[in-house]
Design a protein that fits this description.
The chain is mainly alpha-helical. Helices cover 56% and strands 7% of the residues.
Length: 163
């Protein structure tokens, strides 16, 4: 497909069978959406086989990931934008407390138990294996370039509207 004028490429309809010479005209929303769905489904299916959810992994990582133990409210505030609604992260915290993977201290801050840390480490290994699978055939340089492009596209549409 030839550019309309200058360096602007015409937007073609989404085509899963698009050949390499047609990719420049393909809609990013379609392809980034497919990638998101496929990778997320693959990750969640693998986690389900060991009876863990992706949001549970997020919480385990967040609780262990800072210099101080976070409060329930801090974890909820940080992770809710990633979750499937405002009730998901509070529900996950309750599940992890029930499983004995989290505990609270006198100040109501959250901490991993030994069992929670063991699960987190197991999940980290699983996620590392899955990442290698997803990234097979893609160099770190190519991956970084793809993320830079996506960041630029996000900035282009989330700008101040002056463009």
């Amino acid at each position: 497909m030839k550019p309309l004028s200058g360096s602007i490429t015409d937007q073609a309809p989404a085509d899963p069978a698009a050949t390499e010479d047609m990719l420049a005209s393909q809609p990013i929303g379609y392809w980034s959406g497919l990638a998101h769905e496929a990778v997320t489904r693959h990750l969640r299916d693998a986690m389900a086989r060991i009876d863990v959810t992706q949001p549970q992994y997020w919480v385990l990582n967040r609780v262990t990931g800072g210099p101080t133990a976070p409060s329930r409210e801090e974890v909820i505030a940080q992770l809710t934008p990633l979750a499937g609604g405002p009730r998901e992260i509070p529900r996950v915290i309750d599940q992890l407390l029930h499983r004995g993977w989290l505990r609270t201290d006198a100040g109501q801050n959250l901490h991993l138990t030994d069992a929670g840390e063991a699960v987190r480490l197991r999940l980290r290994g699983l996620v590392t294996e899955l990442r290698a699978e997803v990234h097979r055939g893609i160099s770190d340089e190519e991956y970084v370039a793809a993320l830079k492009v996506l960041r630029t596209m996000i900035a282009n549409v989330q700008g101040d509207g002056a463009s």
